[in-house]
Design brief:
Helix 4 packs parallel to helix 7, helix 6 runs antiparallel to helix 10 and helix 9 packs parallel to helix 12. This protein has about 400 residues and is mainly alpha-helical. About 70% of the residues lie in helices and about 0% in strands. This is Odorant receptor.
Length: about 400
């Protein structure tokens, strides 16, 4: 695609396209198609089941190694930074699987609110939303398709450059993910290509989980903000004096606006319900992962190790920042509704409208926020808290 302004009407499917590597590896968790009722559905769940098999094998083996280490005191083969970020990615994948029905229903709710007429799309400024999505999609396509091969091939390059002979055991820094396998497979050079391919498959699975989660989260957020801003513009256009001259038509239009505001508030609540568990668990695991990566970067002088660990570190910081920024943007878009109402010349309206206006203002003062069970709110303050937590963990590790 060469331009960001398609000649045909923009459809919901245009926002839900997977990245190319997901198609190549068949890790497309949501393969969106329309059924006979013109409803968007996931046409295939094979990616979820393949991912489940890989996760059960990977975490089953490493979980056994951790239990054995804790119970017997035998040395563990774990790589804490890699293990923590694989847990971080897998939690997102588990959330996608558990909430798949809610995700499909929510996408269809947004699809129903998305007009197909070009003129209405222009009024809603859908093209601007799509342009923003497309720019981000292209940037992530470039970053993922350049960084992931480097991340996967660096341990292979280290092995080829530093191995001490065909019979020498494989060290941890020569492996992609590390961890434990039975029969000492990870240290056996005869099985190194097969183990590396397994690690690459697990990496592709985890990155696909992360990208699917990220795309759904951002597409839903952008659409909600688009609808909230469109509602704000309609509220700004209200002329309270019309409630005196044409009361019946005025309150009919007003009723439609209030119903739309209630619908958008419900959608914001459903949006938060889909992601709140992932927010609560994965953000703190992300802080731990970031701590481990910073610790490894501060302790090593190996250029290959620095390059390998700097990529996930940048991903964790960048995407954590963006999630918190999206929460702030949604809160600000919701607050603009109250601002639009407060700038009205409400005192020019009829007595009936002035009474209604007071109730409407009180209802609109409750802005929509992203959070998790009242424990955290997803905004820029939360991003600061995560970075401070990661730094405290980092200084604790350095001191011990």
């Amino acid at each position: 695609m060469k331009n960001t302004g398609p000649r045909n009407p923009i459809k919901m499917e245009d926002f839900l396209r997977p990245q190319m590597f997901q198609k190549w590896t068949r890790f497309v968790q949501f393969d969106w198609k329309r059924d006979g009722d013109n409803r968007l559905v996931n046409s295939s769940s094979i990616a979820f089941w393949i991912s489940a098999i890989l996760n059960v094998i990977f975490f089953g083996l490493n979980g056994w190694d951790i239990i054995r280490h804790l119970s017997t005191g035998r040395p563990s083969d774990q790589n804490p930074p890699v293990l923590s970020i694989t847990i971080y990615f897998s939690i997102r994948g588990l959330m996608l699987f558990v909430k798949r029905s809610e995700i499909i229903d929510f996408v269809n709710a947004l699809d129903r609110e998305c007009p197909l007429e070009i003129q209405k799309q222009r009024e809603m400024r859908l093209e601007r939303t799509y342009k923003s999505f497309w720019q981000r999609y292209r940037f992530l396509r470039f970053y993922i398709h350049s960084a992931m091969p480097i991340f996967c091939c660096l341990p292979l390059a280290v092995y080829l450059l530093t191995n001490e002979g065909f019979g020498a055991p494989i060290t941890q820094h020569q492996q992609l993910l590390g961890g434990w396998m039975p029969f000492n497979l990870r240290r056996n050079p005869r099985f190194y290509p097969l183990v590396w391919l397994f690690d690459v498959s697990c990496t592709a699975c985890g990155v696909s989980f992360f990208m699917t989660f990220d795309n759904l989260f951002n597409v839903m957020q952008r659409h909600l903000i688009m609808h909230l801003d469109n509602l704000s513009r309609h509220l700004e256009a209200i002329n309270p004096a019309d409630s005196v001259t044409n009361e019946v038509e005025f309150f009919a239009d007003l009723r439609a606006l209030v119903q739309r505001q209630q619908l958008l508030n419900r959608l914001c609540g459903q949006y938060n319900d889909i992601f709140k568990v992932a927010f609560l668990v994965s953000n703190f695991i992300g802080a731990g992962s970031l701590c481990f990566y910073l610790f490894m970067l501060s302790e090593t002088t190996d250029l290959f190790m620095i390059i390998q660990y700097i990529t996930p570190t940048m991903v964790l910081v960048g995407f954590t920042f963006e999630i918190c920024l999206r929460g702030t943007q949604l809160e600000e878009a919701s607050a603009r509704i109250e601002s639009s109402l407060s700038h009205q010349a409400w005192y020019m309206g009829s007595r009936r409208y002035r009474k209604f206006f007071l109730l409407w203002m009180q209802y609109s003062q409750r802005t929509q926020k992203l959070g998790a069970f009242g424990l955290i709110e997803i905004n820029m303050v939360h991003f600061t808290d995560i970075m401070q937590l990661a730094y405290r963990l980092f200084t604790f590790l350095k001191s011990h």
